Amino acid sequence: MSKKRESAFGAFEGLFGEDSNMETSGRSAYTERMFEAQKGESRPVTDIPVEDLIEDPDNRKIYGNYKTDGLTESIEKNGFKGVIFAYPCKEVPGKYRIESGHRSLDAAKKAGKEKVPVLITDPPRNEVERRRRLVLANLHGRVFTPLMSAQQAEYLFRTYQMEQEKKKKDASLGLPETDDAEDMGDLNGLVAKDLEVSRPLVLKYRQLYSLQPCLKELSDRFSWSALAEAASLSEKKQGMLAGIIQKKAEADGDGSCTRPFIQGEIRKLRTLPDGAETVSEENKEKKEKRVDAIRYIRKTSEYLEKAFSADSFLKEKSVPEAREELEKMRDLIEKKLEEIGPAGKEGKTGKTE
Questions:
Q1: pLDDT in tens, the chain (353 residues)
Q2: Scanning 14, 85, 104, 267, which has the fewest C-beta atoms within 10 Å of its C-beta?
Q3: What is the pairing mode between strands 53-54 and 84-88?
Q4: DSSP string, 7-70
């Protein structure tokens, strides 16, 4: 196993013992173990009474409340499919704490099941490992909303902060580092590696997480990445932005609250003095220093040529973000072409410089 994959999935190596052969291509480590468990090729799956299984206390903090009506109906008709991952709970003897399968357990209870199949894993060695394993065990097989992904990213970041603080405390006490100690230099990079996304995307998720609730709740309806840019605004201005978006949506429909619209409103609010309720005419008319845009256009063209060349590729997880960015660029280009008009003719601005 390469060092890079170890850091992303090393937390799972303790789940199955030293003889575990971690699969690193195709399926994730978690998916591979789930697949093997269902085939009976891994640890034996044990039927455990549903009352002996307890949720991880942080599961709903990350993923929120979940609907299980469809899953409950499926279990009633077809029986319980799959397997739950759980380990002996030290805090509650005789009980097993779930790492993966919270929704399945809830649905099984509603379907009247008394027992469910469980793959018993080893208890986490410490709190940091418990938190990491909870996220990694649920990384695949769920459809995440932007806010869920943001909560996941922030949860992992705080987890690595805990580990970082422990390392500093151990160092101050003169304790040696463990063999599996991570390089804690870039916490956002570690989170990105665990979530299998880019570091900039982790930073964007954490911006979304930091928003006021009034904006967070809009992230499923409108461009969440545009909303995340409001993280630099004060609480009051974030509330104003939420009001602006909701008013616009009520008047012209959700489709009118585009990414450029939201970004434009954020820019206006940034120029608004603290305590003001509306953007003043003076600020509206304020002109920024003007520059010849051709140099930016040339540089953007160079970058796009590289991005579209045969030497570049897109990871599957990056496709949605890439599509959103390309659509944004397309809208900006079409708007500018309309503004400057056809070649050889004066555009709608009526002048050039």
A1: 333 333 333 334 434 333 333 333 333 454 455 445 444 445 678 999 999 999 999 998 898 887 888 889 999 999 998 899 999 999 999 999 999 999 999 999 999 999 999 999 999 999 999 999 999 988 887 788 999 999 999 999 999 999 888 888 877 776 565 544 455 578 999 999 999 999 999 999 999 999 999 999 999 999 999 999 999 999 999 999 999 999 999 999 999 999 999 999 999 999 988 766 555 444 555 545 567 888 888 888 888 888 888 788 888 888 888 888 888 888 888 888 888 887 765 544 444 55
A2: 267
A3: unpaired
A4: HHHGGGGGGS-TT-----SSS-HHHHHHHHHHHT-SSPEEEEEGGGEE--TTHHHHH-----HH
Decide if 47 contacts 118 (C-beta within 8 A): yes
Backbone φ and ψ of 113, nearest 5°: -75, 140
Integer angstrom CA distances of residue 225 from 63, 141, 208:
19, 23, 8
Neighbour count for residue 53 (Cβ, 10 Å): 22
Distances (CA, A) of 293 to 204, 289, 290, 350: 27, 12, 9, 17
Contact 156, 191 (CB under 8 A): yes
Decide if 241 contacts 232 (C-beta within 8 A).
no
Cβ partners under 8 Å of residue 145, min gap 6: 219, 220
Look up residue 196 and give its DSSP letter: T
Tell me the one-letter amino acid at 4: K
What are the residues whose beta carbons fall under 8 Å from the beta carbon of 254, sequence distance 6 or more? 221, 222
Residue 144's Cβ-count burial label (10 Å; 0-12, 13-18, 19+) is: middle
0.70 exceeded by the pTM? Answer: no
Q: Which two tokens stand for residue 326?
A: 């390309």
Type and span of the H or E element at 117: strand 115-120
Which SS3 state, helix, strand or coil, does residue 252 take? helix
